[in-house]
């Protein structure tokens, strides 16, 4: 094996690809667990007449994480359970 340049080059290429894959995976895991981009605000643009701030805060209580790791479907489902919410839209209005 040690005197076969093609086999050594193939082994080196395989090791480089494996190292890059591991580095990419580690970087992705750091990004998903990073506290750099936390979800801080949930904006309610219109509030029903019989709605209290406590009801809204209760619906979003326990939601945490960063913008890369948050489960948006779970957030949407929790907010749409409120009786006065027709639809949850993730796009801010200008």
The residue-averaged pLDDT reads 81
- Backbone shape: rod-shaped
Distance from N terminus to C terminus (CA atoms, Å) equals: 65 Å
Proportion of strand residues: under 5%
**Gyration radius over CA:** 24 Å
Tell me about the largest β-sheet.
none
Number of strands: 0
Alpha-beta classification: mainly alpha
Number of domains: 2
Order of helices and strands: HHH
**Residue windows where pLDDT falls under 50 for at least 5 positions:** none
Count up the helices: 3
Fraction in helix: 40-55%
What would you note in describing this structure?
The protein is an all-alpha fold and 94 residues long. Helices cover 49% and strands 0% of the residues. The protein has two domains: 33 residues; 57 residues, no CATH class. The protein contains three helices and no strands. The longest helix has 29 residues. The termini are far apart. The mean pLDDT is 81.
Quick overview:
This protein is mainly α and 94 residues long.
What would the keywords be for this entry?
94 residues; single chain; 0% strand; 2 domains; mainly alpha
């Amino acid at each position: 094996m040690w005197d076969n340049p093609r086999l050594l080059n193939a082994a080196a290429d395989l090791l480089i690809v494996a190292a890059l894959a591991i580095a990419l995976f580690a970087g992705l895991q750091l990004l998903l667990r990073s506290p750099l981009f936390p979800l801080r605000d949930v904006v309610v643009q219109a509030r029903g007449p019989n709605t209290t701030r406590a009801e809204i805060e209760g619906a979003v209580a326990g939601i945490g994480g960063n913008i890369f790791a948050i489960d948006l479907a779970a957030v949407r489902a929790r907010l749409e359970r409120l009786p006065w919410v027709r639809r949850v839209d993730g796009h801010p209005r200008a």
